[in-house]
Write a structure and sequence with these properties.
With 419 residues, the chain is α/β, with parallel strands linked by helices. 45% of the residues lie in helices and 16% in strands. The longest helix has 20 residues. Its main location: nucleus.
Length: 419
């Protein structure tokens, strides 16, 4: 019996050595009490109506789009075509006035904590050799969207590209003009009935209707439920979760889904598998606003992980015209943070040296207003640039494949260690 006790004690000591900080964990019930208290206080503070651009008396005129019905989009296109016809008949030529989406036309609004588009526009004339092709693409996209309005159908961005490959040449070009058209018409991109292919997935304590079918995300297997590309068909969201866990990488998502982390600590786990797509951004915002749940983000400890987090929270410059619909306010940076590398004793062989481009990206982020607003982010980024080290979420696997779900995340939640 004494030998068995010694073996158990030795196994426990070995486990603590291979999984640092496991001995600091409280019981699951105690951690759940901490989470319930946090979620309760968060829900209370979420009751007030969020600020909008219209509520602010900004000295700069800004442009925002809104959801429009198909008939409204159709009417807007037809009105635009009539204006073009008048231009041509009056001898002014054929040109589009397109809102500029350049970096110089972007504005970070601290009160809203998101990037918005200012009101500067550029002229895209058909008669000029430098813009004739882009003007033709713009006209083609408007024509295709008009067809979608008449037929009341959805197509993917890839479908749109293949209607005239020789004209578009590259899908990047047709995608960019699609955003221009959305800006010109004053509507969200989803109002155009053009969607991206399914990319994001969700699993955990969430039930919602998808085009009338009820989906229980606890019964979708390890792969989870693909986030519908058309957010309009999503409704009736119900959840007993305490928080939403936003995960950058597919590998970390699979680990947490297989370990049923959402049952141990009631949560909803969502990922866009890297760069955030429009559908995942819309879905995340819808969950946050309807369920009144805090969002905690798990990203790589590198400048690109923080950039991905900022796209979810503050918006992308490319789609700043629709930031009101695409951003999720007050996302907490849970990890992996630069200070975690030493705090959790991540082995040197699991850390990666930052490239010159990484360092430049980190320094550029330090100049962004949305980073400067958060002293904690500034401190972590400065540490990253100073040490010139980065690490992926998978670096935690050096302590065991389930260290992420069994120790790291529970301890983070217990200590409320987020920024």
């Amino acid at each position: 019996m004494a030998d068995k006790k010694k073996r158990r004690r030795a196994d426990s000591d070995s486990d603590s050595a291979s999984q640092p900080f496991k001995n600091l964990l409280k019981s699951d019930d105690q951690i759940l009490q901490i989470l319930e208290s946090f979620t309760s206080s968060f829900s209370s503070s979420s009751i007030s109506k969020p600020l909008t651009l219209a509520d602010l008396a900004l000295s700069t005129t800004c442009r925002e789009v809104s959801d429009l019905s198909l008939s409204s989009v159709q009417s807007a296109i037809e009105s635009l075509v009539l204006q073009l016809t008048h231009q041509i008949l009056s001898g002014q030529g054929f040109s589009f006035t397109v809102p500029s989406r350049s970096s110089s036309n972007q504005l970070y609004v601290p009160e809203l904590d998101r990037i918005v588009l200012k009101d500067k526009s550029t002229v895209r004339p058909f008669s000029h050799i430098s813009s004739v092709r882009k003007t033709t693409i713009t006209a083609k996209i408007l024509s295709l969207v008009h067809q979608l309005c008449l037929k009341n159908i959805h197509v993917t961005k890839r479908d749109l590209f293949y209607t005239d490959v020789k004209l578009f040449q590259d899908q990047i070009q047709s995608d960019a003009v699609l955003d221009d058209v959305s800006c010109m018409l004053g509507c969200t991109r989803s109002s155009l009935n053009v969607i991206a292919a399914e990319k994001g997935v969700v699993v955990g304590r969430l039930i919602f209707s998808d085009n009338g079918d009820m989906i229980d995300c606890t019964k979708m297997g390890m792969g989870g439920k693909a986030i519908p590309p058309n957010i309009d068909r999503v409704g009736d969201m119900q959840s007993d979760a305490l928080f939403i866990l936003l995960v950058e990488k597919d590998a970390a998502y699979i680990r947490l889904a297989e370990d049923r982390f959402y049952n141990r600590f009631p949560c909803i786990i969502v990922t866009a598998k890297g760069q955030p797509d429009v559908a995942t951004r819309l879905f995340l915002r819808k969950m946050k606003m309807e369920l009144k749940l805090p969002v905690l983000a798990l990203v790589d400890s590198d400048p690109y992980g923080l950039k991905i987090l900022s796209v979810y929270g503050c918006g992308s410059k490319n789609m700043s015209y629709d930031s009101a619909n695409l951003t999720t306010p007050d996302i907490k940076w849970l990890g992996i943070r630069p200070s975690d590398l030493d705090k959790y004793k991540i082995p040197e062989q699991c850390r990666l040296p930052m490239t010159e481009q990484d360092i430049k990206t980190g320094k550029d982020l330090l100049e962004e207003d949305f980073v400067k607003k958060n002293p904690g982010w500034v401190e972590e980024l400065n540490l990253m640039v100073k040490t010139k080290q980065k690490a992926e979420i998978q670096a935690l696997s050096s302590f065991g494949f389930q260290y992420l779900s069994e120790v790291y995340l529970p301890l983070k939640l217990q200590q409320q260690d987020w920024l």
